[in-house]
Amino acid sequence: MDYSPVTAVVSVDYTAPVTTMHCPPPLVNETSFTVYGVVEDTSIKASGSEFKLGDAPYMPTTAVAVDGSFSLVLTDLSEGPYTLKVKSTDNAGHTGEEATCTFVIDQTIPDTEITMGPNSPMKMEETAGFVFACPGETACFYMYSFDGADFKMVEEPSFRCRGLGYHKCVEGPLNAGMHTMMVYAIDAAGNADPTPAAYSFSVFDEEGYEEFAAFSSFSVVGGATPKSGKARDPNKVWGLAQEASGPVDPYAGL
Ligand SMILES: [Ca+2]
Ligand SMILES: [Ca+2]
Q: Measured in angstroms, how far is the CA atom of residue 226 from the centroid of ligand 2?
């Protein structure tokens, strides 16, 4: 007979599982994607995690792995705001608090506007200031090309042009002649405007400016221009904002 004591290891689980999700970013431009999560508990139940999207019923996630990890796949969602909840139950029957993610699916391309630009004509030593906008979007960043250069991201505006709106400033002296600013917006979900807005203006040196002022019947045009450009004759030296034609690689220069 063996009278040595028998040792049984009994793990008693008094705690509810804690579920954590790696939430998608607040703004998403995809309609199908995977969300990953993890359950922490002393008695993880493989089939214990469920998710629900909005008011839909709870659905099982993938099986919870030994290390607590799981995932769920969201497919063919439409644009709009979403709330995703996941809850987990352990082998002892405890259900923990829901983990929640909120996000918005935005697949709408931003429409870039140049809401203000420099006077045309302007003197060559002046700073050409622009204000960009993307109406209807939460936030955008802007890629610009001045006089046909590669598109670059707008960085911190210069002090002289700081103000309301999203500014880009081009410091003088600029060459005499026509100059064009092109810009497209990328919204917070990552959607890029395929048709940049453009703004053309003319620059005179001191002498040319005086001649222009003496002989032209035009007055100097202020910068606030309609996006369409239809209100002004592109053959004149007016400031002109319009949509450029043709597709532009939205990620060129990124
Ligand atoms: Ca537990
Ligand atoms: Ca958008």
A: 21
- Rounded to the nearest angstrom, the distance between the alpha carbon of 40 and the centre of ligand 1 is 8
The DSSP-derived string for 189-245 is TS-B-SS-EEEEEEEE-HHHHHHHHHH-SPPPBPS---TT-TTS-TTSSS-EEEEPP
225 alpha carbon – ligand 2 mean position (Å):
23
Ligand 2 center from residue 190 Cα (angstroms): 8
Domains 18-105 and 113-243 share a fold: yes
The pTM assigned to this predicted structure is: 0.69
- CA 106 – CA 46 distance, rounded (Å): 34
Architecture of the domain delimited by 18-105: Sandwich (2.60)
Centroid of ligand 2 to alpha carbon of 106 (angstroms): 5
In CATH, what is the architecture of 113-243?
Sandwich (2.60)
Q: Ligand 1 centre and the CA of 90: distance in Å?
A: 5
pLDDT, tens digit, 9 for 90 and up, residues 41-70: 999 999 999 999 999 999 999 999 999 999
All structural domains of the chain with their residue ranges = 18-105, 113-243
Q: Could you tell me the pLDDT band of residue 176, with boundaries at 50, 70 and 90?
A: very high
Nearest CA-CA partner of 192 in 107, 110, 80, 253: 110
- Which ligand has its closest atom nearest to the C-alpha of 13? 1
Ligand nearest to the CA of 44: 1
Q: What is the CA(53)–ligand 2 centre distance, in A?
A: 22
